[in-house]
Design goal:
This protein is α/β, with parallel strands linked by helices and 354 residues long. Helices cover 36% and strands 14% of the residues. It has an eight-stranded parallel beta barrel with strand order 3-4-5-6-7-8-9-10, surrounded by five helices. A two-stranded antiparallel ribbon has the order 1-2. Helix 2 (67-79) crosses helix 3 (107-121) and helix 7 (244-260) crosses helix 8 (264-273).
């Protein structure tokens, strides 16, 4: 099985696959209708993921206007897989524009959203419940306290955050630790070879405070497969988001793929899933074969010299005050001429049970 290795999510005892199944395209409603899959089309994708040994499934109440959760609930029931799965869903986005409390991150909406998700998923709890997006106004204390109440009620096992500023995540985790509340275990963010900005603050925050990063869009919406380079068709083929710098990255990515005898997508996924601080990469699929190709991305190791080639080609130069935190600046100003590090190599060797 391609996904038969499991690692702890953040600073928790929860064991998850390094590739998570994203189900944003399960269903044909809402904003995702253009590329959504019917229940019949989603079934072989879901079963393929289980067959490969995967146990980490991600959805949200907003995906396909709730259809994603409904379909997922049916597929989980028919495969009798609820107990073995780490089931994740999210809340924030409005489910009723006429009601100001039917969206956002307030306690009223959090509880109502979870209850609705549980009904659609056909379960009495979710393993990880995520705040989907920072709403800019709800007090973080209210969010953290409500998460803790839901954990104590047995309706969620662990809380987490998605798409929030780094300072917000730091404050939430610190409040939880200081008051003995349920800590966040994951931070879900966009991360890929063409979108590495989270490395500046979010990734080191996660490493320091025990939040495992789960990376969404690790293929940059399919761009890193190379299918849009020559005018290929797809839902993002006409999106004016790709810069010359992004397109130039495809050449070294293809070189690395050719050197290893794998696809560009597999290299891009492997790079994300094995980056520091990353707990899992979330992938979606149009069909079971495509998912099988994605899960095989962990069947090889990315040699150090080839990883360096990708790192250098995709590097994002530090901006503003962050330039002062680079090794070069610190060696020049903070500790001139000295060789100082936090811990020697091998100080905390990895623990393996195989």
């Amino acid at each position: 099985m391609a996904l038969d290795q499991y690692y702890l999510l953040g600073r928790s005892g929860l064991r998850v696959s390094r590739i998570a199944l994203g189900t944003m395209n399960f269903g044909t409603g809402g904003f995702h209708a253009a590329y959504g899959k019917t229940e019949a089309e989603a079934r072989p994708i879901f079963r393929k993921y289980l067959d490969e040994g995967g146990n980490f499934v991600d959805t949200a109440d907003f995906y396909t206007a709730g259809e994603s959760e409904t379909i997922l609930g049916k597929l989980i029931a028919e495969t009798h897989s609820r107990d073995r799965l780490v089931l994740t869903t999210k809340f924030t986005n409005s489910v009723d524009p006429a009601d100001p409390n039917a969206g956002g991150n307030g306690r009223k909406h959090m509880i109502r959203a979870l209850e609705a998700s549980l009904r659609r998923l056909g379960t009495d709890h979710v393993d990880v419940f995520l705040l989907h997006t920072w709403d800019r106004i709800t007090p973080v204390e209210e969010v953290v306290r409500t998460f803790d109440d839901l954990v104590r009620a047995g309706k969620i096992r662990y809380p987490g955050l998605s798409d929030v500023p780094s300072w917000y995540a730091a404050r939430a985790q610190t409040l939880a630790e200081a008051h003995g509340l349920a800590p966040m275990v994951t931070l879900q963010l966009p991360y890929s070879l063409v979108q590495r900005e989270i490395e500046t603050e979010h990734v080191p925050l996660g490493q320091a405070l025990g939040l495992g990063v789960t990376a969404w869009s690790p293929l940059a919406g399919g761009f890193l497969t190379g299918k849009y380079r020559d005018g290929g068709a797809g839902r993002l083929s006409n999106a004016p988001t790709w810069t010359d710098r992004d397109r130039q990255l495809l050449e070294p990515l293809e070189e690395v793929a050719n050197a290893l005898g794998v696809t560009m997508a597999q290299v891009a996924l492997n790079w994300v899933a094995t980056q520091p601080g990353v707990a899992a990469a979330i992938v979606g699929a149009s069909n079971a074969d495509q998912l099988g190709t994605s899960t095989a991305a962990l069947d090889f190791e990315l040699p150090a010299e080839l990883r360096t080639q990708l790192d250098e080609a995709s590097a994002v130069p530090p901006a503003s005050v962050h330039r002062m935190f680079t090794p070069a600046y610190q060696h020049w100003i903070v500790s001139p001429g000295l060789k100082i590090g936090d811990k020697p190599a091998g100080y905390a060797p990895a623990v393996r049970n195989w």
